[in-house]
Amino acid sequence: MRVAIVGGGAAGFFAAIHAKENYPSAEVHIFEKSKKVLSKVKISGGGRCNVTNGCTDIKKLAEAYPRGSRKLRKAFGSFHTKHTMEWFETRGVPLVIQEDNCVFPVSQNSQSIIDCFMNEVRRLNIAVHLGKGIRSIKSTDEGIELESGDDTIRFDKVIVTTGGSPKRSGLEWLEVLGHKIKEPVPSLFTFNMPHEKVRELMGIVVENPLVSIQGTKLKSDGPLLITHWGMSGPAILKLSAFGARILQEKNYEFKTQVNWVHLPNSELVMNELLSIVEAHPHKMLSNFRPYLLPERLWHYLVERAGLSLHSVWSQLGKKSMNKLVNVLTNDLYQVTGKTTFKEEFVTCGGVSLESIDFKTMQSTVVPGLYFAGEVMDVDGITGGYNFQAAWTTAYIAAKLLS
Prior knowledge:
This protein is of the alpha+beta class.
């Protein structure tokens, strides 16, 4: 059996290794159009590679995927986060689970993951072809023909692992075969706020605010990072992932609402402020901050409410208290544009799951053709989830039983 893997990224290498292990006598070839393999693995997690997430509850794990959640939930029954961790550790890559459940190599260096893959590929005698992109796929009675440059190469099975495409044109070679395509749009991006003063607080992390998009049902929580261009961090990235299509339709012009204290009930917040008035009546607003908010943020919010930092708590009237409650629970910011998160480009969209039998990852229109990773309309939030989807779908595709 001759097996071709189209795309030399995370899903591609994982699929190739498993295909060869499942069929030791098979010829397995990886085709990568660029001169480098595993480039996304290299830059992931700031060069540390967030290989998976520490969550082992399959139901909860599946909830981290705005697209493909239901299908992945079943797929995780075959290969999930625990299996991923075991796979790397038994191949000499010890892992560590951080407090936020992100899983990294103990080395804190993505090269450990790359070296592991390259060692496996050498050990299993898998051929890696660099600078060899696949232009088209043709299904014949004798198998599947791949066109690369002037060459036509025939294989029995082909797994497409080309990753997310920023434009629909990058998926046309699969669309012409009869696959349905979901329009690709960016996912996992940060919010630009060029006209908002909050950018002056860059570097501040707020542990668990509640963030929503005005005029929609979109909301998320988690750490929020204020940057020199606007807002980032898990709370924002999660919001961008679940709202990928809605925010694209808005042309990335919208208002985001921040509840800095994660308490939707403003009455509870008012009671907390009244208790401060009672307990610390003579303290200045600058010297006593509620909810252990970062000091610079609290000072900014007091001024944003139109109050003086030199005012003492006991001097605040009802109007001033309402202003403080409002700024703590309903702080609005104008978003104008987006920025890709680090160098990691994640797309919402790709080959529609309607065109894929998720039990095998085989195409429903081309027998012997399989898919794995982000080329499909599957994507997760930040935290190792996209790599986990790649490992799981590659593992299933590499069974090649259909």
